[in-house]
Amino acid sequence: MKPFSSLNRIFSNIPIHAALILLCLLWIVPTLGLFVTSFRPREDVRTSGWWTVFQPRQVVGETEYDTYCASCHGADGKEISAADLSSPELLVDYPRSNRLLTALRKDIDGKPHLSDPALPSNPNKALDTLSKILDYMRSLSSGGTAKERFTLRNYADALVGYKGTQDYLTDCQQGVASALAKFQCNSSDLLNPEGMGRALLNTIMVAVPATILPILLAAFAAYAFTWMDFKGRQLLFIILVGLQIVPLQMTLVPIARLYAQLGMQSTFYGIWLFHTAFGLPYAIFLMSNFLRGLPRELFESAYIDGANHWISFWNMALPLALPAIAALGIFQFLWLWNDFLVAKIFLTTQPVLTVQITNLIDPRGGNWHILTGAAFLSFIIPMLVFFAFQRYFVRGLTAGAVKG
Amino acid sequence: MKNKNKIWLIISVLVIFAMTLAACGAPATPAPTQAPVTTEAPAETQAPVATEAPAETQALAPVIDCMGAAAGDQLNVMYQWSGAEEEKINAIFKPFIDACGVQIVAESTRDAAVLDTKAKSTPPDVLFWPTTAPMTLYTAQLKDLGSLGADAGSYASFWQALGTTGGQWLAAPVKADIKSIIWYSPVQFETFGYSVPATFDELDSLVDRMAADGNIPWSMGFGSDAATGWTGSDFIQDLLLTQQGPDYVMGLIDGSIPYDDAGVVEAYQTYVKWAADPKYTVGGAEGTVNTPFLDAIYKVFSDPPEAMMVKQSGFAGGEIVKQYPSLQYGTDFDFFAFPGAKGMQGGADYMMAFSDTPAVKALVTYLTSAYGAQVWAETGFDLSPNKNAVGKYTDAQLSKKAEALANASGFTPDLGDTIPAPFGEAEWKAIIAAVQGEDIPKALAAAAAAQAEALKQ
Predict the structure, then answer these.
(1) Residues of B in contact with A348 (CB under 8 A)
(2) What is the pTM of this model?
(3) CA-atom Rg of chain A in angstroms
(4) Residue percentage of chain B with pLDDT more than 90
(5) Do B126 and B343 form a contact (C-beta atoms < 8 A)?
(6) Fewer Cβ close by (within 10 Å): the C or N end of chain B?
(7) Is the model's pLDDT at B3 over the cut of 80?
């Protein structure tokens, strides 16, 4: 062995590793941003980026406050009891520095409010200074305690589908009328039709049967195509697999019409049927190719031993095809989980997760804090499914799809 | 083989679980967004609202004509409203539901593709849509509103003209928002000694005075995903209304005036002077093109503000308090009509009917009636174009908007909402290119070509 061969290998792998790390970063950084944002209070989400959570919160305006206000109002703002600068009631009147400036321009007892030192005469400079002083007064009124930086309220809002101006838990605590009209403020709110909790149930109800049905049917069909002899087998197989080229979008209108005539619009049965029909061609193709790869002798000896098709399907074909079934299952399940278009059209009264997220968006694109929480809720389960069956994923793919 | 059994056990449990859920869930299906208002006291259907009428509405006898709709009749409606807006429309529906016992099943979507699929398979009974586009797309399916009992007398003639095609009145406006207004902070104006301009020349000199003071007059932002550019389109339309007038804008909409006409060039020149210069707008051309339109609103009301004024539709008021709940209307934020505009620019949501069942007739009659207008105004779901809504608003901001609309010497629909999509997209492209420094006649040539292509008969 040459002395530098291992070193050589390390260097030759560097581009691959660099590309991998880059790809991972490209995916992880935005996801991390979403994750961090989903735990930030609404006010923070509105006013600053998620990366600022890694910086310490700084209180600005202390020097400005000391220069202009501390001599009369005291360092804690409480010196003049009629004008307690640290009281929240006083701050309500001054949401902006321009209001404070208007007030300060008025004389007090016939003398200018601020004379030593006077505020900068340029209004822009005065506003700059005053906005910092206001920031400092706000920190005084909150008693110097830092505001919470992380919260679970976004998740609560998303789960129950809260769209008001505060947050669900606060509204319930204060008994806000508009919230009480919509919520019971107990665990039954988790099933509120506008929330992600209900949507999660709906998605499970769509995804689980619509994953199992096509795979089961495809397994039967694939067994028949592979091990049973009947006339026109090849032709039927080609036709069925050829159906893959039918674009889903083209069939929306005719199927919606058909469903309307059958009274199946907006039912779970309708959407199961739709997804099963569209999942079957690929599932049959993949399963057939996988079963064809199994040794012929195995089945022949079983037939000689007296097994019929039913027994050899359940006891041999199906267990052996487990990797292919798992791969198909993951594919179909993730596709159903992420499906928006079909659910939006065929399941209008029971919104699934993807549709519910769009319902949570404010008409003009607001409500980011709820969206981040909702997005995370919507992809926890697919992640679990993927990690649980991950080892079948690649195995099943290479086992079936690439063989002709 | 033990392993196999386990898997099938799990699968069958899952299937049974899902089937049970579906079986339990299915009967509860029909009421998506609101509680099913079941047949409350069908005997009282005649005039139950009269008894509940608020004391202050005595001037109008609040009678809802049910047009023979039976309690329990189902009415499918489709609209784009969601969240707080959906709550408002439900509040407006409520007296109607209480009176007639009709069950309203609503679907909310902003997607024109969903509307198209539905219209071709299971059309809603009543559609509310922010453009009159469905009127031209589904003309044959829609019913004449007059024949359903809608009161045409409730609407000014220009509203009727907007909803009429081929001699049939197919779309009635139910909700309007005015666009020719400018939002500002009265306290901030007071701080600098500025006053609200009454004419366009005053606005022009105010803008220059602000710039001389070191303030940035305008906050502009085009950013709106696929619709980037519409805020610029609104601003230019106001300039056209000021410099040319409403007839000129209508000419652009119907194609009788080409989009590269001298008047359009003039409006673009005025606009680009402001929109591309960092002295006049936050961030100059780059800021104008890249700032999201909501952020552009916030910049005027942050502390300290980044700009003095933002031209935006009536909805901006709601967005300001949502972003800054501590600000107060009238002190911290307010609006004034675009100075010198000869006519008001606005947008509206239109009601269209796909069927003529008694329940549809009853809803159409209710919403176009004087009582419906009053409920709309009191609920405060933007403005009601219904004449009878005037003076019924309880919200100060809405009253002022209604007044601005009533005082306008004319009305033009938002050009961007009305023209065909290819022309609209070409217009946005032209605006973005002009702001980014392209020669204006050159930028307009492509839009004019798209206009000719889209509007040729």
Answers:
(1) 32, 107
(2) 0.78
(3) 32
(4) 59
(5) no
(6) C
(7) no
DSSP assignments along B280-345, one per residue = TBTTHHHHHHHSBHHHHHHHHSSSS-S-SEEE--TTHHHHHHHH-TT--BTTTBEEEEPTT-SSEE
3-state secondary structure A161-179: CCCCCCCHHHHHHHCCHHH
Reported as half-sphere exposure (CB side, CA atoms, 13 A), residue A144 has a value of 4
Residues B196, B198, B203, B209, Cα dihedral to 10°: -50
The percentage of residues in chain B with a pLDDT greater than 70, rounded to a whole number, is 86
- Sign of CA pseudo-dihedral A199, A218, A283, A330: positive
- The one-letter amino acid code at A236 reads L
**Does residue A186 register a pLDDT over 80?**
yes
Q: Which amino acid is at B214?
A: G
Residue A35 near residue A25, CB atoms below 8 Å: no
At position B359, the amino acid (one-letter code) is A
- Say which CATH topology domain A196-400 has: MetI-like fold (1.10.3720)
Closest-approach residue (CA) in chain B for A364: B294
What mean pLDDT is predicted for residues B342-363? Answer: 92
State the average pLDDT over residues A101-119: 84
Q: Domain-by-domain residue ranges, chain A?
A: 5-54, 62-141, 153-190, 196-400
Token look-up 């960092």 returns B278
Question: Which of A96, A178, A366 lies at the smallest CB-CB distance from B332?
Answer: A96
**Helical (H) or strand (E) element with B413:** strand B411-413
Tens of pLDDT along A113-147? 887 788 888 888 899 899 889 888 888 887 655 56
Shortest Cα distance, chain A CAs vs residue B131, angstroms: 16
Comparison of pLDDT for A4 and B99, the residue scoring more: B99
Chain B residues whose beta carbon lies within 8 Å of the beta carbon of residue A219? none
Query: Which residues in chain A have their CB less than 8 angstroms from residue B332's CB?
Result: 95-96, 99
Tokens 């807006």, residue located: B85
Residue with tokens 């691959």: A16
**Number of Cβ pairs < 8 A linking chain A and chain B:** 139
d(CA A188, CA B340): 56
Q: pLDDT tens for residues A210-257? A: 999 999 999 999 999 998 888 999 999 999 989 989 999 899 989 999
* Residues on chain A touching B87 (C-beta within 8 angstroms): 178
Which domains does chain B show, CATH number per domain?
56-177+348-407 (3.40.190.10), 181-342+419-455 (3.40.190.10)
Nearest to A344 among B25, B105, B114 (CB): B114
- Tens-digit pLDDT profile for residues A255-273: 999 998 898 888 999 999 9
Is B83 within 8 Å of A163 when comparing Cβ atoms?
yes
**Closest-CA residue in chain B for A315?**
B1
Q: Does B114 touch chain A (CB under 8 A)?
A: yes
